[in-house]
Amino acid sequence: xxxxxxxxxxxxxxxxxxxxxxxxxxxxxxxxxxxxxxxxxxxxxxxxxxxxxxxxxxxxxxxxxxxxxxxxxxxxxxxxxxxxxxxxxxxxxxxxxxxxxxxxxxxxxxxxxxxxxxxxxxxxxxxxxxxxxxxxxxxxxxxxxxxxxxxxxxxxxxxxxxxxxxxxxxxxxxxxxxxxxxxxxxxxxxxxxxxxxxxxxxxxxxxxxxxxxxxxxxxxxxxxxxxxxxxxxxxxxxxxxxxxxxxxxxxxxxxxxxxxxxxxxxxxxxxxxxxxxxxxxxxxxxxxxxxxxxxxxxxxxxxxxxxxxxxxxxxxxx
Amino acid sequence: xxxxxxxxxxxxxxxxxxxxxxxxxxxxxxxxxxxxxxxxxxxxxxxxxxxxxxxxxxxxxxxxxxxxxxxxxxxxxxxxxxxxxxxxxxxxxxxxxxxxxxxxxxxxxxxxxxxxxxxxxxxxxxxxxxxxxxxxxxxxxxxxxxxxxxxxxxxxxxxxxxxxxxxxxxxxxxxxxxxxxxxxxxxxxxxxxxxxxxxxxxxxxxxxxxxxxxxxxxxxxxxxxxxxxxxxxxxxxxxxxxxxxxxxxxxxxxxxxxxxx
Lengths: 318, 261
What we know:
The structure holds two protein chains of two kinds.
Chain A: E1 5-14, E2 17-27, E3 32-36, H1 43-50, E4 58-63, E5 66-67, H2 73-79, E6 83-86, H3 98-109, H4 114-127, H5 143-155, E7 161-165, H6 173-190, E8 193-197, H7 201-206, E9 210-215, E10 218-224, H8 225-229, H9 234-240, H10 256-262, H11 293-297
Parallel strand pairs in A: 3-8, 3-9, 6-7, 7-8
Antiparallel strand pairs in A: 1-2, 1-4, 4-5, 9-10
Helix pairs in contact in A: 3-4, 3-5, 4-5
Chain B: H1 2-30, H2 37-77, H3 83-121, H4 124-130, H5 135-172, H6 178-183, H7 185-188, H8 191-217, H9 222-255
Helix pairs in contact in B: 1-5, 2-3, 2-5, 3-5, 3-8, 3-9, 5-8, 8-9
Keywords (chain A): ATP-binding, Nucleotide-binding, Transport
GO molecular function, one term (chain A): ATP binding
Organism (chain A): Nocardioides pini
């Protein structure tokens, strides 16, 4: 049914360079969250800290009562069994074919017989559309297939939390759309907690229940999708609508001169909020909220044209 | 300024400490079950296959050079009948373990560093840890044991090839008599000489594999990082091997009295 991740006051730096500080958020159980941020703001570092591959300087990450940031190595290996992680390039073991890759966690952690392993592996391969490619080596297939194979391996132990590191990087728009649909369908099916790290705003606008934005070494905002998409906060607004006007510059933040030059400029109006992506069988996910609910409850008027179509305010191709 | 200078000056000590901590982790992983037998056999086979032929080819001139050098020297002293003995001592105690170690480090160690380094930058090692599997136990321990095993056997091979090479050169080029060469084997050489040679080979195999694994698993910065890791692992291993050889030889010469001394 998914597990909640509580992040308190998390700070990470490499040497003297602060990556991000005082990040506090709760990833609700069973929901899909997207963590956004300009390139180089430490999104992947955040993900690696969540699974204990990197130690934060301070703060805590509580999962089922265990603090990942301070627990022992043994506890860490135990708690990681709750996780499924899709790495940027799939991180398939180069010396094994896809079948052995996907079967690897089962063979290492369970005492299942080879025929049971086979059933589970085939089911997951079918889920990601890779039936028939089991005998291929990771070097022989395309990046998109590697990602899907990585996803199959991440799902094989029935994880409670699934982390995606840039699932859409290096994929064409069609494959990205398919992968997003797959993510939504999966969440409807297994009810696990999903956290997606990306900088693709089409994904961010349509897939998640919650959005977070990392910017300038801190968490700029974290909340329900509609809250961020209707937000007037300059950083959030600039990033989610891919505009040049705003505090984010080509390299990190703009300097005072550039900001002063922009001062008089009228910001383009907020684009309409698209409908959330539904699972392909049409039944809403358990954690899905009705369109426009958050805006009504909080007295926010969504931009005109919102919730009318599933691709409002998106770049073409989706 | 002064802090950055001192931190830079102390950095090598930090690296040495990390390497030692890594070696302890490997030692702990040695006793963790299940033992990765398959990986161990595959690695032993792989390391053997990349080292056997080069080692044999290096061993022949190695033995020959020692035979020529020692033979020439001994002739000047007028003690030709001890040529065989001197050559056995030099080959078994020094040349065999060092020759083995250079090839284990150069061929086996560089392959290990490259393999683990590539896995590191492709995030395979991270993926493994996330799947709840400790790469030290799963990948490094079998490699270290495989390296030690192969070093042990290669040492035997280099000893045999080196001594035969010395024999051929002594008998054919230096007009030594086969009987004198063989008979003098036991005049100065003794059984502990063989044990120290084998012990050295085991220690050198251990050092080569641990350094190569450490460097590979800490590779960073893309494909160039893997190349750097391989390069550094070979250089560091060579340095450590010669230091270790010096220490072991010194202890051995103190502890075991030379024959007839």
